[in-house]
């Protein structure tokens, strides 16, 4: 009996030692994040997406206790940077500051788009929205939207021109909606990037452009550009004298551009949850809210990633139809 008891205790001790060895050899799950996070902006520096991403990255870095490095990868209306993130490892260390352009408009504009806005990303939350402002060079002999439309009707044989950062951008589609609503012909001159288009508008070589508030406001203050209307539902606190398109009886021309955070598809749910909570907490920051307001934007957030996913699906359908009706295509 004693021998049996002895053997039982030996076997039990061996089993416990074996389990301990197996447990100690198992890799521990690393706490997220344990290294810097890269936030890709698919547009050049100085754009609304870039400014918004840098503001929230700073605040989120503090709560996550890891730096968030913003990296600009512009090109093809945001498609270049978006594709880069779509193909990145789904580990939470490469994120995208996507926009209405990259996820709701590009799928209808680029027939051979290399990413799918729904299938290739995990939505986290929208962070802010920006309206577009229609500006003209100081040298153009108009001071109101009504005067611009009247001039456009006089020049149907030689249409007024508008610039944009590329086919299918919100600047492009804002002008398309304006032309359709006002029943005037306008000639599109696409550029590779908003800054190049803005340079020619400032020089008077192009008649108008739609731009985000933080981009056009400095030039308006300097008197180099004149702001005629804004595409938001309400006037901008930064440009209170500029009427909305709705005030001009052109509500159909309303458009606001959201900017949002995305991760590659199959990023683990706990990581998405961590990022969502960090972003929502950041958006409660009075300093961040004031910064966005100073830029001419407005905080827009989604309670959960699922809420954003539903809103994204709706926007893809809505703006896809607008793009198809406009005839805009990049290839």
Automatic annotation (TrEMBL):
Which UniProt keywords are listed? Receptor, Signal
Q: Which first-to-last residue range defines the signal peptide? A: 1-30
Its family remark reads:
Belongs to the UPF0065 (bug) family.
- The name on file for this protein is Tripartite-type tricarboxylate transporter, receptor component TctC
